[in-house]
Write a structure and sequence with these properties.
Layout: E1 6-8, E2 11-13, H1 15-24, E3 28-34, H2 42-51, E4 56-59, H3 61-68, E5 76-80, H4 88-94, E6 99-104, H5 110-123, E7 127-131, H6 140-145, E8 155-158, H7 161-170, E9 174-178, E10 184-185, E11 194-199, H8 208-213, E12 216-219, H9 231-251
Parallel strand pairs: 3-4, 6-7, 6-11, 7-8, 9-11, 9-12, 10-12
Antiparallel strand pairs: 1-2, 2-5, 3-5
Helix pairs in contact: 1-2, 5-9
């Protein structure tokens, strides 16, 4: 049964099925291998996952049984995205001269990711970047929380967010980290015409390497003794302010 393709919800299983999905690229979120009974050509599958920047783990066989809802998984299960991810190169190539991107550094809660995807689309963002490991990728929960917005927004899964930011800056983008201690007021920031807003994990914030790749740090002034907002709410405030500032700058350009 090696040549058949099996689907169980948002997972595929079987050595051939997973190999083909990895070869096609763009939709595999993570691959799980059984510790007890590794599939035939396991080394080749691991190498294919590594080459594609797809996270993988070796887990107990019981975990695979649960994921696939069967024991006929041949020792390998892959979680897949309901949408195809875009490459960073294609995302950047499709950006207009004035563009806004949202980058999420290991944001973990799928509902937050979904709400931010919808907000980014509403603000006119040109794309959403997610970390391939350590954060939520596109699954059914994200899709529902976005109310379908993920189907209309280019989404990139980044193996290395700091490197992705450096590539964006080479394409003319200015990277703004959103941080409660940021020294620039989000409402007074002279947002660049090509801007990427970078938000960190719900509890830890931006990782050091990602912080180092940012050009500036912006903050949202808060009243009432608050020191922070929910990450999805904060993203909404900053995205719409950045988009507004970009439009105003465009409007004031001399003909």
């Amino acid at each position: 049964m090696l040549g058949e393709t099996y689907l169980a919800g948002q997972v595929i299983y079987g050595a051939r099925s997973v190999a083909e999905a990895l070869r096609a690229g763009g939709r595999v979120n993570r691959v799980y291998f059984a510790r007890e009974s590794r599939p035939r050509d396991c080394a080749a599958l691991v190498e294919a996952a590594r080459a594609g920047g797809v996270p993988f783990d070796f887990v107990p066989q019981a975990k695979l049984n649960e994921l696939a809802d069967t024991q006929e998984h041949q020792g390998v299960v892959a979680q897949i995205s309901p949408i195809a991810y875009a490459s960073l190169e294609d995302c950047l190539a499709a950006c207009p001269p004035t563009a806004l991107l949202l980058a999420l550094d290991q944001v973990q809660h799928p509902r937050n990711v979904g709400m931010m995807a919808r907000t980014a689309l509403g603000a006119g963002a040109s794309g959403l970047l997610l970390t391939a490991r350590g954060g939520a990728l596109i699954d059914d929960t994200v899709l529902r929380a976005s109310a379908g917005a993920v189907f209309h927004l280019p989404i990139v899964s980044c193996g290395n967010m700091a490197q992705a930011l450096r590539e964006m800056k080479e394409a003319g983008f200015w990277a703004y980290g959103l941080d409660a201690a940021g020294d620039m007021d989000v409402f007074r920031t002279p947002w660049a015409q090509r801007a990427v807003l970078v938000l960190g994990n719900e509890t830890e914030g931006l990782r050091p390497g990602v912080r180092k790749a940012c050009d500036a740090f912006v903050s949202i002034p808060l009243a009432g003794g608050l020191d922070s907002l929910n990450v999805a709410v904060a993203a909404g405030v900053a995205l719409f302010q950045a988009a507004h500032a970009q439009r105003e700058k465009e409007r004031r350009k001399p003909f």
